[in-house]
């Protein structure tokens, strides 16, 4: 459903949030390893997340990426998805067809509407903080 970049973006944000709970900044190399992503690709994703004010970036020897504690309560998953993939997940065809709409639907168009709406609700109501705390407690995982 999400692009690979978006999957990595969500995982990176959650990893940074989990580390930020302990007031710890992380660098690109550490993020890439933690989310099992190529380092150069991770760096491009991180640029988008910083540009969209999802994570903070600090330069220098004690720099790295972090999320302020007040920030993760306010960041919802939909913000990460929109920063990386835009709103295509809500508008694109479920089968990937270029021409799919109410007047000219694909075979799954109307069945996919409710799935899309449920996904939108989940993304809009799930905070990064909630998921980062699940990671910290060990009841959710970023790697297998």
Automatic annotation (TrEMBL):
Lineage: Bacteria, Pseudomonadati, Bacteroidota, Flavobacteriia, Flavobacteriales
Annotated organism of origin: Zhouia spongiae
Pfam family for this entry, one: Rrf2
InterPro entries: Tscrpt_reg_Rrf2 (IPR000944), WH-like_DNA-bd_sf (IPR036388), WH_DNA-bd_sf (IPR036390)
Name of the protein in its database record: Rrf2 family transcriptional regulator
């Amino acid at each position: 459903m999400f692009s690979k970049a978006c999957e990595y973006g969500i995982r990176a944000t959650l990893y940074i949030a989990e580390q930020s709970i302990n007031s710890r900044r992380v660098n690109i190399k550490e993020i890439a390893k933690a989310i099992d992503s190529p380092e150069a690709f991770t760096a491009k994703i991180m640029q988008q997340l910083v540009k969209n004010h999802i994570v903070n970036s600090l330069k220098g020897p004690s720099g790295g990426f972090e999320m302020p504690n007040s920030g993760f309560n306010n960041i919802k998953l939909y913000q990460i998805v929109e920063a990386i993939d835009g709103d295509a997940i809500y508008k694109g065809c479920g089968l990937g067809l270029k021409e799919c709409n109410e007047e000219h639907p694909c075979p799954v168009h109307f069945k996919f509407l409710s799935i899309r709406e449920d996904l939108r609700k989940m993304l809009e109501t799930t905070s990064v903080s909630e998921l980062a705390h699940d990671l910290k407690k060990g009841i959710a995982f970023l790697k297998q």
